Structure formats: C-alpha cells, structure tokens
Amino acid sequence: MTHAAVTSAGRSETASLLAEGRAHLGLELGSTRIKAALIDDLGTVLATGSHAWENQLVDDSWTYSLDEIRTGIQGCYAALMRDVRERHGVELTRLASLGISAMMHGYLAFDAEGTQLTPFRTWRNTYTTEAAAELSEALGVNIPLRWSVAHLLHALRGGEEHVQDLAHLTTLSGYVHRELTGRSVLGVGDASGMFPISASGDGYDPELLERFGALEGVAALPWSLVDVLPEVLVAGQDAGTLTTEGAALLDPSGALQPGAITAAPEGDAGTGMVATQAIAPRTGNVSAGTSAFAMVVLEAPLSGPREEIDMVTTPSGDPVAMIHTNNCAGDLDAWLGLFGRFAELLGSPLEPEELYSLLFGAGAEGEADAGGVLSFNYLSGEHQTAVPSGRPLLVREQESRFTLENFMRAQLYGAFGALAVGMETLRQDEDVQLDVMYAHGGIFRTAGVAQQVLADALATPVAVGDSAGEGGAWGMALLAAFTAHVHRPTGDPATSLHTFLAEQIFTAQQLSTRRPDEAGTAGHARWLAGYRAALPVERLAGELLD
User: What b/e string do you get for 190-224 counting C-beta neighbours within 10 Å, with b at 16 or more?
Assistant: First the structure.
C-alpha cells in the first residue's frame, strides 16, 4: 500500500473507480480541524480535504455550535471534492461507504423532537469533578471527567431543567452520523466513552446500568439511561445508509447521491488504533494533536480501577487501557509560530514543514535532560497531573543551560509530559508489557525526532508508518472499507478487523521504528523528575493568573 499521490499510469483506473462510486470516505472532526480521506479497497489515499475550526468558551463551557458542525463538515467535503476534481478530473457523485469519527466523550443532549437541550459540552470541560467521583464510587470503575455519563449526572445534580426532557444523548460522531443516516448508533469504542462497556464488548454493562438507575434522583426521571443512549455496534456491523437528506447535508451542491453503506461512528481514539494497526494485545498507539492519548490493548485485566487510566475498547470491543491528556502540541505550535514570525521579520520566511524540521532538528541536538529547562504545555487543565486550570509555563532550574537546542528539547518533552506520567503508572504499577507503540499525528511528520523523544519517554519501541500524518480520517475510512467488505455479496461476515487490516491494508506498510536510547531514557527520567517537582508551580499559576 502507498499513501502517495496516484501515479499517472493509474489515473484512468482511479478516475473510473471514483466515477463508479467504489471509493470509501472517512471524515473526522478533531479539535481544530475537520479532515476527510478518500481511499480505495487497499487503503490508498485518493484525495483529502480539511476545514479549520475552533471551539468557543461560552458561559465557562467549551463548545461548538450545531451550525459550526454542519458548516464544518460541508467545508471539509467541498475541499475533498475539489481535490478529486483537480487530481483525477472527475466529479465525486457516489461512495461505496463512509464513516464519521470525532473527538470522544462530551455531551450532546436532545429532546424527543430532536431539539438540542443545551450547548454541546466537549471533552475539554472539567467541571464534572464531583459527578465523576460519585459515579466512580457507585459503579466501582473509573469514570473520567469528560465521559458523557459524568456530564449527565453533573447536570442532574446541578438541577438543570433540561434533564427531565432528555430523549437522546450522544457524542459528536453519533450526532453527525444520525444526521446523515437517521440512525442513533455508536461504535463500541466511542460508546465506551459514554458509559462502561460489558465484558463481552458488545454493549453497555447491564449491572452498571442498574447501579446508575439506583442513584439518588435518577429513579424519578421519566426515562432510563439505556433508552437515551445510542445503540452499540462493533466494527463491521451495518450502521445504516446515507439518506437523501444526509447526502444533501454533506454536499449541498446536490452532486452526492444517497445509498452508501456506513460504518459505525467512532471516536478519534479508535480510529487512531485502526490507522496504526494497534488492535492486538501487547501493542498500543499514541495519537498526538491538540490533545494526546495512548491506547494499550490489554492481555489481562488491571488490578482494579485507577483514576489515571480509562477503560475503553477497540472498535471490535477488546479491552483497552487509555491514558488521555488534554494538552499536547498546542503550546509547541504557538512557540513555533513565534519563531516563524521572527523569520518573516528577518526577511526569510519559512514554510511550516521547513520551520518544524529545522527546530525539531535543533531539539534533537539538545541535552538528554534538556539542560534543566522545563515546559508545561497546559492550555487547559490536566487531570493526569492534577492541574485544575492550565497556564502555559516555561521554567528553568537554577543551573539550567538555556540554549535553543535545550529549549526545543524541553518543548518536545513537554508535549508528551503528562502522557509520560500516565504511562509510567500503567507500565510500572500495573506491569503492563508492550512490544511496540505505534504513533501518528502531525508532530511525527518531521522524521524521527518526536518519535525518538516518545520512545525514550515511554522506554518502548515506537513505530511510525507512512500513514502517520493521515491520522484518524484515514483510520475511519478503513473502518468504512471494512464494513463494505464484509457486507458485499462475496464478503465474509466472519472476517475480523484484525485480519482485514493485516491481509489487505498493512501488507506493504512501510514502518520506521525507533528504539529507546539508553542515554535518552535516562535523561528523560531526570527531566520528568524535575517536571513532577515543578507541578505545584503550574498549579499556582492557574490559581493566580487569569
């Protein structure tokens, strides 16, 4: 498989494939960008599209409006259509399959008529502390602050009137999917960020649903939780087809025809696992963007619930330990933007790829412990390190060696700082064994640098494939292609996602693997000790600075 542009020799064949509606579309709504990837049966990327957007802080809550969601997916799809037209000289009018992915968790609540009851509350909102703690104790499993059920109980405990009128609760991917297909369903990976999944991996845990129903004030509600949550599907199950209304929503020009089969909508964690083929035990993946998360497929259950670890699933329903951080590359991007502006003032502007390559290369030359320079990338609060309200912070130790190389090394370490803290808990306290971690996201576009930093930070080999920059939209497109594969007249419904990926998609995948460097691992351990020691300073900054 290759993800490069299609060669001229294959353009005619590709144009026919597109015109005949044999391509598969994955669309992912991330925190700052909506991306689309169009692929063939082998996973080759035929076209891409994107649309930038930003969340808004409204009444102390991070949100996106429904209008922004609609405008965003339309803008992204329009960009994809232009790319198809420019690359292949055809109009995109039909699809074989499609799938929607989005940032996980959060709270999208609707009444029986489909009216939104309260603005979308995204995963970034951390005001659900008391509700999450009550649920964790009552259910006997860790319920993170950002999970949908934590937002629901928070609204109930806060006396919010809309809870009485609740008829449908979903995530962002589930909302868009329902708009496109009319079906209220959710892939098990995304559903596992709404409410705990049963051991069988194919639905919500019935015992825990009963415990939720027994909580004070819940029994008096005019609905039961299982009735307002989306139906759970595993990878490959039929999640409906693109309706006439859905096609018009996605493509207001009217060119797109209905009828494409759809994959179950998934969260960005699940699509990251698929995009890196990290769905087998002793493997995992790191997805790095505005936030970061590590997903580790487990061989055996953990010793018990842990606040630092979320228990979710792969898109096939297998148990996964998830280390999630609210912050990753946002502050790093801001610093590089500053350097980019400086280059402009010097009269030597740099393209983003060149700028990142240059400065990442400098970071690779920094001292293994970053010379005593510490970077906290906390644009928002960070639960992994018990920081309620984040403030980006650069701190130097008394005897620090403040060079550009050490500064950039500290920025790269800081991007994965909270993630390293969480993974240390999983590896050391739970003795979880890892053979390899696969990584993807824009931070890995500069060959080798962030990859080596992550390998040293996790003391684990880190592999990056030629799909590393494609991210979750490509992973979602693969899930759509898998769904189409098993539902063809000649398909085998018993085919597993693992087999499909191994035999059809990743057979020729080019992987670059970086192993932990002894000096780098030791240096990062020293840096992380300083990072932990300085956390009270970061917490104080959040208290004192508006």
Answer: bbbbbbbbbeebebbbeebbeebeeeeebeeeebe
Q: Give the end-to-end CA distance of the chain in Å, rounded to a whole number.
A: 50
For CA atoms 229, 235, 238, 244, give the dihedral sign: positive
Instruction: Choose the CATH number for 278-466+516-546 among 3.50.50.60, 1.10.357.10, 3.40.50.20, 3.30.420.40.
Output: 3.30.420.40
Quick one: which of 528, 126, 127, 136 has its CA closest to 310?
136
Q: How far apart are CA 14 and CA 407, in angstroms?
A: 46
Cα gap 268→270, rounded to integer Å: 5
Q: For the beta carbon of residue 344, count every other beta carbon within 10 angstroms.
A: 11
- Cross-strand bridge partners of residue 62: 57
* pLDDT tens digits, one per residue of 457-498: 999 999 987 655 557 899 999 999 999 999 988 777 778 999
Distance CA 425, CA 412 (A): 21
Could you tell me if 138 and 145 are in contact, meaning their C-beta atoms sit under 8 angstroms apart?
A: no
Cα–Cα distance, 227 to 216 (Å, whole number): 19
Strand partners, 285: 295, 438
Distance (Å, rounded) from C-alpha 327 to C-alpha 382?
A: 7
Q: Give the span between the Cα atoms of 298 and 444, in whole angstroms.
A: 25
pLDDT in tens, 298-339: 988 888 888 888 899 999 999 999 998 999 999 999 999 999
Is residue 94 within 8 Å of residue 154, measured between CB atoms? no
pLDDT tens per residue across span 241-289? 999 999 999 999 999 999 999 999 999 989 988 988 888 888 899 988 8
H helices then E strands: how many in the chain? 19, 21
Place of tokens 């087999």: 499
The residues with which 284 forms a beta bridge, in sequence order, are 296, 437
Give me the phi and psi of 517, to 5 degrees please.
Answer: -95, 135
Kindly list the distances between the CA atom of residue 147 and the CA atoms of 50, 128, 513, in Å, as whole numbers in the listed order.
Answer: 27, 9, 33
Where are the chain's structural domains? 278-466+516-546
- In whole angstroms, how far apart are CA 388 and each of 59, 323, 382, 543? 18, 17, 6, 9
